[in-house]
Design goal:
By secondary structure, the protein is an alpha+beta fold. It is built from 7 helices and 8 strands; from the N terminus they run E-H-H-H-E-E-E-H-H-E-H-E-E-E-H.
């Protein structure tokens, strides 16, 4: 079975207007376009590919702000704004899609930026690598200032018992400095700072797979160390 991957950034209560969500999204999409060609163009989702390709998403602050405003929840203002799209790839298994929920301040519902990554094909061969996913998670961290972010496989996610910790550990993991200081971690784990915002953790330079027992054991060891340092616990709402 082919292992599938996703990237996600998560943050709790943050009341922001659609214009600020648009500014953050512009920063995110502009950085993404420099990381890989498959992240360069985005389209609104439609009933068919032909119809969707007529509606390109303009990634400037003003246009994105208007789209977020239109994506406001009709009943509950505290749920924030939503925006979704995909990259127009003709091969569904080699396509990317995104879903953003931001500006929400409901206690029980968080904010997030999710990217569904390609599975097989030329895009997948380029994207499912440590350098590209590190760049993607870094872009999420800089633009959205989340509490945590990651890139991981769905199969690896399925190995985590319920209830999961507030922050998960994936192939690439970002932890905000609000969570604390990342302790020393075992080789071959790579650690790097993200400006003054937090820390990136890359478990392996090769593709992480849940079918590799050594990869899973390394992830569990890193999770234990981060959990012991209190970095995976739920943050208090501001």
């Amino acid at each position: 079975m082919v292992e599938t991957y996703y990237a996600g950034a998560y943050w709790h209560i943050r009341k922001e207007p659609p214009e600020e969500c648009g500014r953050r999204a512009e920063s995110f999409f502009n950085t993404l376009s420099t990381i890989d060609p498959s992240f360069s163009l985005w389209f609104k989702q439609g009933n068919s590919r032909k119809e969707a390709l007529k509606h390109r998403i303009e990634t400037d602050t003003a246009s994105l702000g208007k789209m977020f405003r239109r994506g406001k929840d009709k009943l509950f203002e505290d749920l924030g704004f939503r925006l979704s799209g995909w990259n127009g790839e003709s091969n569904d298994r080699d396509a990317c899609a995104f879903h953003i929920k931001c500006g929400g301040y409901a206690e029980e519902v968080g904010n997030r930026c999710l990217i569904q990554l390609p599975t097989t094909g030329p895009n997948a061969e380029r994207v499912l690598t440590a350098p590209v996913l590190t760049g993607l998670v870094r872009a999420m961290a800089v633009a959205w200032d989340p509490d945590d972010a990651l890139a991981m496989s769905h199969a690896h996610r399925d190995l985590i018992p319920d209830p999961p910790p507030d922050a998960l550990v994936g192939w690439v993991t970002y932890l905000s400095r609000r969570r604390g200081t990342v302790p020393p971690l075992p080789a071959p784990v790579h650690i790097e700072r993200v400006e003054d915002k937090g820390t990136l953790i890359v478990l392996t330079p090769e593709r992480f797979t849940a079918s590799n027992p050594e990869h899973v054991a390394l992830a569990e060891r890193v999770r234990e160390l981060l959990d012991r340092a209190g970095l995976l616990e739920a943050l208090r709402s501001p």
